[in-house]
Amino acid sequence: MRLLLICSFLLLSSCATKSLTELVQAHPDYDVSQLKTFIWAEPPVQVIGILSGSGESDLTRRAQSVGQAILMNRGYVDAGPHKPDMIASLMIGAINQSSISQHKVDARQGYYDRTVSWTQENEYLRGGVAIILTNPDNGVIMWQGSAIDTLKANRKSTGQKIDKFGKLVEQMLPASQ
């Protein structure tokens, strides 16, 4: 439970920035590139924020498929029934974010013959994907890679964003030796 809270905090707090964010956290005592096998945590995907709820099962299946591809493309192998070198899990989430700006143009600036002021509020949907690799013996997070960005409202498929985030995280993950 503590692991979920820490990872949730890191993913959602990273959503508070204005542009694409890539974040890697590697434990100094572990080199995941020296590991080879993994299994999925139970549950394999945690959905947090406003994405949790309806339609979650399709989203989790899609995310796990992307996570499987990330690990396999980097040379990691599913341990099956054997003892794994690491336990993999994914976290996906989104939060609403808004920004408020105030503007004032007065008559002395020459734009208008009177003072004009207004307040503008913009709402954004920020989302992200994190892959977390933990030690099966002690539960320590050995490596975590996250990609966070603004989700466009006109996107036709959330799968496209999950794929984009997955590719970014894949580039950050050290290849298995």
Average predicted confidence as pLDDT: 78
Q: Percent helix among the residues?
A: 25-40%
Strand-and-helix sequence, N→C? Answer: HEEHEEEEH
CATH class wording = Alpha Beta
Q: Termini separation (Å)?
A: 31 Å
* Uncertain runs: 1-17
Compute the number of structural domains.
1
Alpha carbon gyration radius = 20 Å
Biggest sheet strand order reads 1-6-5-4-2-3
**Architecture, according to CATH?**
2-Layer Sandwich
Could you tell me the strand content as a percent range?
35-45%
Q: Give me the count of strands.
A: 6
Structural class: alpha/beta
Instruction: Specify the overall morphology.
Output: elongated
CATH topology: Double Stranded RNA Binding Domain
| Sheet with most strands | 6 strands, mixed
Helical stretch tally: 3
Polypeptide structure, described:
The protein is of the alpha/beta class and 177 residues long. The protein has a single domain (2-96, 126-172), classed as Double Stranded RNA Binding Domain (2-Layer Sandwich). The protein has helices at residues 2-14, 56-73, 158-172, and strands at residues 21-26, 37-49, 77-78, 86-105, 116-134, 141-151. The chain has a six-stranded mixed β-sheet with strand order 1-6-5-4-2-3, with helices on both faces. Helix 2 (56-73) packs parallel to helix 3 (158-172).
Compact summary:
A six-stranded mixed β-sheet has the order 1-6-5-4-2-3, sandwiched between helices.
